[in-house]
User: Which sequence fits this backbone?
C-alpha cells in the first residue's frame, strides 16, 4: 500500500505526483494479453485510439501506464497498470469508473488487486467503528461476534420484534433485518424499526448485554440517508445496506455522515456477477474486502464456503485478509461470512478466520425448537468451548 | 405485458391481487434445474428453508411461485417464477433485489425476461421524453439521431468547449461528455458545463439547429441531483449518467425530478459483468433495454456489435426491441449503440435498427482531418444517402 514508484516517473511532467495501481489478470495468448493490457490503459482513461492521443501530459500522465506485465500460468497474464490519482480523486464513483468502467464490458479482464497511495486513501475515512470499535460498542472484546436476521419476509413488525427480543435475550450481538425487508405494506419500515429497536432494548435491560438492532436501509436513493437518520432516532444500533443495489457510494455517504454515526454492514445482494465468473469482474477480496472497507463498511457480508453459495475457502479467507491488511489510516473491518451457516460449521470457521469474524446465522437458529433464545445460546456456547 | 394470471391464483388469499413474473434460464440437468428454480422461489423472498416457512399467506403468496418450467436446449431450462407485487412495490431497488438479489451470487441463473403488470409499471413514469419527445426537442423528426463525446480526458474545459462548438456546427444532435469526465481538477464540472453549454448555444444560433450539450452527472450520490440542477441552470440540454456506478435508482430519481426535466442517457460503464457471462446475470435486452427504460432513460448506450466490445448483432437488436415493446404507459426509449463506431458502419446500423436509433460516434469523428464540423457533416450525410 505504499506510494507507487513508477519507472517513467522521472520522465513525466506529473499532474499530481502520485499514481494508484490496479493489477489485472488478463486471459489469452501473450500477444493478446499484452494488446488487452495496452487497450485497458486507453479505454479506462482517454477512450481514444492511441494514434489520436495528443503528445504531452495526456499521453504521458492521463493514459494508464503498464508498470509490469508477467505470466501467471499458461494463457493468463498479470498486468499492473497505474493511473494518475487526479483522474479519480475524491470521488468513489469515478475511482471505480477508472478501475473497471468500460472494461467491465470486455471479457477476460479481472481486477486482482488495488494498490492505493496515501493521497488517494486519505479521501476515504473508511469504517467509522472498524473491528475494535464494533467490539467496544457490543461489549465483546474477544470472541467472534454473532449476527442473525429477522425472517421470513411476510411477518408483521410485531412478529419480527418478538423474534428480535428472543434473539437478544439469547445474546446474539447483532440482530439485523433480512435484506429483503424493505418498506413493504405488510411490514412498513418505520413501524418495524420502532418495534424491533424497542424489543432489543428491552432484552438488553434484562440481560445486561449490548445487542443492537440493525435495520435494512436499502431503498430509494433519495430516502436512504433520511431512513438511516430516522432509524437512529428510533433506537437502531447499526445499519444494513446492499451497496450493489444502491451504488457503493451510498455506503460512503452513510459512513461519513456524523449525524448518523452508526456502524454499517454491507450485504452482497445483486453484486454477484462482479465476482462469480472468475474470468471477469473483480476478485472476491477486492470487491468484498478492499472496496467495501474503503467505502466505509464496518462489516462485510459474503457467502461462506460450504454454504448454499459457491465461494471457495481460499476466496473467503482472502476476503477476510483484505479486511485487515494495512490500508493507510483506514480501520480493519469485520468479515461476516454467512449463507446457510449452522452451528456445526462454527469450529471450521474459527479455524479459517480466527476469532475476528462475525458469525452470520439465520435460519440455523430456527432449528432445534421454537425457543429462539435457547437456540441462540447453544450456538454462542460453541465460541466458549473452542 | 398483460397482468399475469397464475394457476394457483384462485387458491390463494392474495395480498394485492397481482404478481409479476421473471423468466430465468437455469443451466444443469432437469433435476438440478428444477431444484434451482425451487431454490430461487425461496432465496429471493423468505430466505428460509422450505420446511421452516409458515403455512398460510407467506407460503402461498410471499414465496416465489414456479409458473412454468420447460426445456430450452439440452442442459438449459426456462423457469418462469412469479412474485407478489407487494414484495417489491414502489421501490426500484427492492424490485431488483427480488428479481436478482441473492441469486446473483449463485452461478448458472440468468434473467431472460420480465413480465410486469400494470400495477407495478404504474409506479414508474419511465422516460420523460422517450423517442418522440427527444425527436421533438432536437427538431429531428425522421432520421437517426447523432451523438458524440467530448474527449480525450485531460483536455481543459476551454478545449472541450471548442470541440463542442465544432460538433454542433457540424450538426451533431447530442454532444455529450465522455463518461470519464467527472469533476477532476484539470477539468472541473462547473466550468466545463458552463463553457460547453455556451459553445453549443452559440453554434445553434449560427446553424439554426437544436443541438444539446449533455454533461456527465455521474458522481457522489449526495451531489448527483444538485449537479443535474446546476447543469440545467448553466444551459445543458440533457444529462449523462452511468447507472451501474451510481445505482440504477439515481436514474429514476433524475428522471422523476420535475425541477430538472431534461432527457437522460444511460451509459453502461461498470455494469458489464451483469451481461457478459451469458450464463449468469441478465440478458442484454433486460438490462440495457427493459430496466434502463423502466428507470427512466430516454436513451440507453450499449456497445454495438462489431465494435471494440463483444455483443452480438442478435443481442444488440434485442436491446433495441426492448426499448420499444409495449410496457404500459411507459414511453419507448432510444437505443444508442456505440463503442468504436465509424462512418462505414452506418449502413449496417440502419439495416439492423431502422431509423430509430442514436448513432454514437466518438473517436470516429476525429479521423479525416482536424475540421471536426466537416467530419460531422460527412457522417450525417450518410443518413440522407441511405
Assistant:
Amino acid at each position: 500500500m505504499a506510494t507507487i514508484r513508477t519507472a517513467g516517473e522521472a520522465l513525466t511532467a506529473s499532474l499530481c505526483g502520485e499514481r494508484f495501481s490496479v493489477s489485472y489478470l488478463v486471459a489469452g495468448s501473450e500477444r493478446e494479453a499484452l494488446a488487452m493490457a495496452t487497450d485497458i490503459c486507453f479505454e479506462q482513461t482517454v477512450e481514444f485510439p492511441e494514434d489520436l492521443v495528443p503528445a504531452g501530459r495526456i499521453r504521458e500522465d492521463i493514459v494508464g501506464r503498464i508498470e509490469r506485465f508477467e505470466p501467471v500460468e499458461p494463457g493468463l497474464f498479470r498486468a499492473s497498470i497505474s493511473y494518475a490519482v487526479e483522474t479519480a480523486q475524491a470521488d468513489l464513483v469515478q475511482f471505480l469508473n477508472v478501475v473497471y468502467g468500460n472494461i467491465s464490458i470486455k471479457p477476460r479482464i479481472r481486477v486482482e488487486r488495488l494498490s492505493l497511495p496515501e493521497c488517494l486513501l486519505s479521501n476515504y475515512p473508511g469504517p467509522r467503528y472498524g473491528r475494535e470499535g464494533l467490539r467496544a460498542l457490543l461489549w465483546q472484546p474477544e470472541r467472534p461476534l454473532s449476527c442473525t436476521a429477522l425472517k421470513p419476509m411476510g411477518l408483521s413488525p410485531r412478529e419480527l420484534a418478538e423474534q428480535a427480543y428472543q434473539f437478544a435475550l439469547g445474546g446474539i450481538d447483532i440482530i439485523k433485518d433480512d435484506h429483503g425487508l424493505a418498506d413493504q405494506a405488510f411490514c412498513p419500515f418505520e413501524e418495524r424499526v420502532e418495534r424491533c429497536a424497542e424489543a432489543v432494548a428491552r432484552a438488553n435491560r434484562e440481560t445486561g448485554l449490548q445487542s443492537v438492532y440493525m435495520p435494512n436501509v436499502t431503498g430509494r436513493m433519495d430516502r436512504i440517508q433520511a431512513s438511516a437518520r430516522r432509524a437512529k432516532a428510533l433506537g437502531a444500533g447499526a445499519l444494513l445496506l446492499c451497496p450493489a443495489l444502491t451504488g457503493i457510494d451510498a455506503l460512503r455517504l452513510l459512513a461519513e455522515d456524523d449525524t448518523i454515526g452508526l456502524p454499517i454492514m454491507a450485504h452482497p445482494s445483486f453484486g454477484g456477477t462482479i465476482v462469480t465468473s472468475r474470468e471477469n469482474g473483480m476478485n472476491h477480496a477486492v470487491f468484498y474486502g478492499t472496496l467495501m472497507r474503503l467505502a466505509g463498511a464496518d462489516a462485510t457480508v459474503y457467502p461462506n464456503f460450504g454454504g448454499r453459495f459457491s465461494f471457495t475457502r481460499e476466496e473467503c479467507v482472502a476476503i477476510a485478509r483484505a479486511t485487515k491488511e494495512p490500508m493507510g489510516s483506514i480501520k480493519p473491518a469485520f468479515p461476516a461470512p454467512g449463507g446457510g451457516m449452522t452451528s456445526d460449521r462454527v469450529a471450521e470457521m474459527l479455524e479459517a478466520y480466527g476469532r475476528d469474524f462475525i458469525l452470520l446465522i439465520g435460519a440455523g437458529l430456527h432449528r432445534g425448537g421454537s425457543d429462539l433464545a435457547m437456540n441462540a445460546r447453544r450456538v454462542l456456547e460453541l465460541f466458549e468451548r473452542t
